[in-house]
């Protein structure tokens, strides 16, 4: 570091508490959404393979729909959109593929 860019002793960084809260919520919800989508894909694979009963399929569907509703509520609570949770990984593309319309 040059002398011009060295941090000054005793100087505080101003942090907007709301911005930090929203960013942290966004990060946590991104991880939860990634896991939710992975669970949904795994459930669909199991259904396609025919290894589960109709009752289990119904329960899986209801559980996944409830989780998606909860995610919608949490995003709304923190003022986030689906796009806010979809991290851009540069040349790899977005973190969360969107297979269905919003």
How do the strands and helices of this protein lay out in sequence?
Blueprint: H1 17-49, H2 54-78, H3 82-85
Helix pairs in contact: 1-2
Short summary of the structure?
By secondary structure, the chain is an all-alpha fold. Helix content is 61%, strand content 0%.
Low-confidence stretches: none
| Mean pLDDT rating | 82
The proportion of residues in beta strands is under 5%
Major sheet summary line: none
Element-by-element helix/strand order: HHH
Describe the protein.
- The structure is a single chain.
- The mean pLDDT is 82.
- Helix 1 (17-49) runs antiparallel to helix 2 (54-78).
- The protein has 102 residues and is mostly helical.
- The radius of gyration is 20 Å and the shape is elongated.
- The protein starts with 16 loop residues before the first helix and ends in a 17-residue tail after the last helix.
- The protein is built from 3 helices and no strands.
Structure keywords:
102 residues; elongated; mainly alpha
């Amino acid at each position: 570091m040059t002398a011009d860019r060295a941090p000054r002793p005793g100087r505080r960084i101003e942090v907007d508490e709301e911005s930090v809260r929203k960013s942290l919520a966004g990060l946590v919800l991104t991880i939860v959404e990634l896991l939710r989508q992975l669970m949904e894909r795994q459930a669909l694979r199991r259904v396609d393979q025919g290894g589960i009963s109709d009752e289990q399929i119904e329960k899986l569907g209801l559980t996944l729909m409830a989780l998606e509703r909860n995610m919608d509520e949490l995003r709304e609570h923190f003022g986030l959109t689906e796009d806010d949770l979809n991290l851009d990984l540069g040349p790899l593309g977005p973190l969360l593929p969107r297979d269905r319309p919003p």
